[in-house]
């Protein structure tokens, strides 16, 4: 009896093995806590659920419409193209705009004796719980109804399995890609490679938009069926077209596509498992050691070469620190790369859109006929986009912002120095974009107008986003992944970006009015007017926002400090 009791006690005291359900319970508890936090977080999280439900419902009916109408070709095209867009969005959007939800941060498990397989499966399972995953599942579920209408219950079952596998693939590819880019962007030796890969990924959005636009304007949409066949045999489209293969009687093709998705998921999970440990540990760059400092000049060594002119005071110290951080911090560097790619691509699309999108199949390309108004609008958009990154500039600091509070740095000095450091990187990009677009449209005389518009709009954006960074800041997770966000922060980031762009455009209305009514005179006065307007807006913003920051320093520190 004593031996049996001892054995029972040992069994009861033995720790239970960690399984995916533990990660699920942790994720659900954290999501539940989102409704007991600050009011603005609850509102943003609720808006995220509402918008996700609206888009999911619209996607469900769009995916089911063609099959219910009995149009086999259209249903297959919708499944391949729509499913491919969904999977591609899961791949690119976390890198470019909204980040990836790292509510359950992998780095928090670094010291726990968890096998790699348990950690990866648990994190994957937890990632399947959330607004984006639920919205994707609801939207793509319309394909089950479409396949069932065309091929009966068997095709519906196959498509239901494909939809589930497609969701797992989307989450797996999102986590694997962001984890890999996190490692690349953290290492300064490989940042150039990461920049190229990110630029290529962002550039893929352009051809996709062009193809969709031309498909919608051309009545002969069946010419895209061969392309949909190709997409259907890739992991991006295979899970969403398997049911339609079964509906057509191609059961072997349907099973082959499901097997293709399973193999792709296995490869992605293996890839993710190889990068997750490095992301957890936060390995530093393996480059050569830093140079030894010269005795007697410790202060000068803190200033980069491009800032040798900066004065040695609190303004200069923050300026030098921020200039270094904007390139060394992977999270900030990724935002700079994203802006450079998006700004150049969008400005080109606005000015060359008629020549590219307005051309029917088989017709020669039209000549570029950009107008000063269109040109100005594109520059206003680029200038507004340039300052969006500052909408949460204090969130990059996190708890380290306490050092500035302890040092007693005035708010005006903080805002002005941070804006100046950001301008060191953005201004050369802005000038380069103005010159490139002006030359490509064949109007080099418009370059001064472009520079004035860009600088003026950028100055307005600095003022607007500096204010948003003080009153609308949110905490970022303590992780080496530059694309990681907490639950609800993706919605906050999206709304702040939209709000900052709207405010920036409104403040830039005087520049737009000058392009509308000043005529040819504006080509010559736009540069000095834009420089003065932008500099004045940035200075006035630093004064106003600096006073607000002085009053809100404790609240701001509490807001941007990551919760453990």
General description of the model:
- With 564 residues, the chain is mostly helical.
- 73% of the residues lie in helices and 1% in strands.
- The chain has helices at residues 2-13, 20-33, 39-68, 72-96, 116-127, 131-140, 142-151, 153-186, 191-203, 205-217, 225-232, 238-247, 251-281, 298-301, 314-328, 330-357, 372-386, 402-407, 411-440, 447-471, 489-507, 509-517, 522-560, and strands at residues 100-101, 484-485.
- The chain has a two-stranded parallel ribbon with strand order 1-2.
- α3 (39-68) runs parallel beside α6 (131-140), α7 packs antiparallel against α8 (153-186) and α8 (153-186) runs antiparallel to α12 (238-247).
- The longest helix has 39 residues, at 522-560.
- The two termini are 46 Å apart.
- Residues 8-14, 282-297 and 355-368 have low confidence and may be disordered.
Number of helices: 23
Q: Give, in spatial order, the strands making up the sheet with the most strands.
A: 1-2
| Average pLDDT metric | 75
Q: Count the strands?
A: 2
Question: How helix-rich are the residues, as a percent range?
Answer: over 70%
Largest sheet: 2 strands, parallel
Low-confidence runs: 8-14, 282-297, 355-368
Strand content: under 5%
Instruction: Please provide the ordered H/E string of secondary-structure elements.
Output: HHHHEHHHHHHHHHHHHHHHHEHHH
- Distance, first to last CA: 46 Å
Shape: globular
> Which structural category fits the helices and strands?
mainly alpha
- Please give the radius of gyration in angstroms: 26 Å
């Amino acid at each position: 009896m004593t031996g049996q009791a001892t054995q029972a006690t040992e069994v009861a005291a033995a720790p239970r093995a960690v399984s995916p359900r533990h990660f699920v319970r942790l994720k659900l508890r954290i999501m539940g806590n989102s409704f007991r936090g600050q009011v603005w977080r609850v509102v943003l999280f609720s808006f995220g659920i509402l918008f996700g439900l609206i888009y999911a419902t619209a996607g469900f009916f769009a995916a089911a419409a063609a099959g219910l109408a009995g149009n086999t070709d259209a249903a297959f095209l919708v499944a391949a193209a729509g499913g491919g867009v969904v999977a591609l969005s899961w791949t690119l959007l976390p890198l470019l705009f909204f980040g990836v939800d790292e509510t359950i941060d992998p780095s928090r498990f670094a010291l726990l004796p968890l096998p790699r397989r348990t950690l990866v499966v648990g994190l994957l399972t937890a990632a399947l719980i959330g607004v984006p995953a639920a919205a994707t599942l609801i939207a793509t579920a319309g394909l089950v109804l479409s396949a069932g209408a065309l091929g009966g219950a068997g095709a519906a079952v196959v498509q239901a399995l494909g939809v589930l596998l497609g969701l797992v693939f989307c989450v797996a590819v999102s986590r694997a890609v962001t984890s890999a880019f996190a490692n690349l962007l953290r290492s300064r030796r490989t940042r150039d490679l990461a920049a190229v890969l990110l630029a290529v990924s962002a550039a893929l959005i352009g051809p996709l938009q062009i193809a969709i636009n031309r498909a919608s304007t051309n009545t002969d949409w069946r010419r895209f069926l061969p392309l949909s066949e190709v997409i259907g045999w890739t992991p991006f489209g295979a899970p969403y077209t398997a049911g339609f293969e079964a509906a057509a009687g191609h059961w072997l093709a349907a099973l082959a596509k499901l097997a293709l998705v399973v193999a792709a998921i296995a490869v992605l999970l293996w890839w993710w498992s190889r990068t997750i440990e490095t992301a957890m540990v936060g390995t530093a760059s393996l480059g050569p050691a830093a140079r030894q400092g010269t005795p007697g000049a410790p202060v000068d060594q803190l200033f980069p070469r491009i800032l040798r002119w900066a004065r040695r005071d609190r303004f200069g110290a923050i300026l030098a620190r921020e200039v270094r951080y904007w390139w060394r911090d992977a999270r900030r560097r990724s935002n700079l790369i994203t802006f450079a790619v998006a700004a150049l691509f969008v400005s080109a699309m606005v000015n060359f859109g008629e020549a590219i999108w307005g051309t029917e199949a088989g017709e020669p390309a039209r000549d570029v006929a950009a107008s000063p108004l269109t040109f100005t609008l594109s520059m206003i958009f680029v200038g507004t986009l340039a300052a969006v990154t500052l909408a949460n500039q204090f969130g990059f600091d996190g708890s380290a912002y306490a050092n500035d509070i302890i040092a007693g740095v005035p708010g005006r000095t903080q805002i002005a120095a941070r804006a100046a450091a950001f301008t060191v990187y953005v201004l050369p990009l802005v000038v380069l974009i103005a010159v490139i677009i002006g030359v490509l449209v064949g109007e080099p005389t418009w370059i001064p107008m472009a520079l004035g518009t860009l600088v003026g709009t950028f100055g307005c954006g600095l003022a607007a986003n500096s204010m948003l960074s003080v009153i609308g800041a949110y905490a970022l997770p303590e992780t080496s992944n530059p694309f990681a966000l907490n639950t609800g922060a993706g919605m906050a980031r999206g709304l702040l970006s939209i709000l900052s762009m709207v405010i920036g455009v409104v403040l830039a209305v005087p520049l737009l009015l000058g392009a509308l009514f000043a005529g040819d005179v504006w080509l010559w006065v736009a540069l000095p007017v834009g420089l003065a307007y932008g500099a004045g807006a940035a200075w006035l913003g630093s004064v106003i926002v600096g006073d607000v920051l002085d009053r809100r320093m404790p609240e701001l520190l509490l807001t941007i400090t990551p919760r453990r």
